[in-house]
Amino acid sequence: MTTKDWLSFCSSKSDYVVSGPHLHANDVMDEAGTDSGQFGAADLMPWDAEQVVELSLRLEDLIGDANQEIVVFNDSSFSEMTLVTDVALLERWAVQNHITAAGEDVSGFIALRFANGIHVYHQRELALSVVRSSEFD
């Protein structure tokens, strides 16, 4: 299942998306792509989430809200995430006070602004790195 398919699945579930497109790193499904009612990687995946070295997503597969804002919530044991894209990262900063168009309060989060207008917000505890597609295996 591709990242885009996974996010599409998550956005169709009211339990996953409250007020707009956002991603919880702990939202997982079984191998058939169905929701088993469980919300933990250890319950659904054949490996221990703590042993997973890195989670990576392609920026182009993520769906933003009306203002092209994407919020990544990390309610799992993942401490690192890689965002793969060929779009230039223009700016990274700590957000003072901001609520996204989808209604998410991202005050205190880290924000990234890309050349295509997309803004990605993530919690400070998540180490998010950005790499070019050509550098990613």
Summarize the entry for a quick read.
The protein is 9% helix and 27% strand.
Write up what this structure looks like.
Strands 1-3-7-6-5 form a 5-stranded mixed sheet. A 3-stranded parallel sheet has the order 2-4-8, with no helix packed on it. The protein is built from 2 helices and 8 strands. It starts with a helix and ends in a 6-residue tail after the last strand. It has one domain. It has 137 residues and is mainly β. 9% of the residues lie in helices and 27% in strands.
Helix-and-strand structural type: mainly beta
- N to C succession of SSEs: HEHEEEEEEE
Count of individual beta strands: 8
What is the first-to-last residue Cα distance? 18 Å
Q: Total helix count?
A: 2
Strand sequence of the main sheet, in spatial order?
1-3-7-6-5
Count of spatially separate domains: 1
Measured as a percent range, the helix fraction is under 10%
Poorly predicted residue ranges: 8-47
- Alpha-carbon Rg, integer: 15 Å
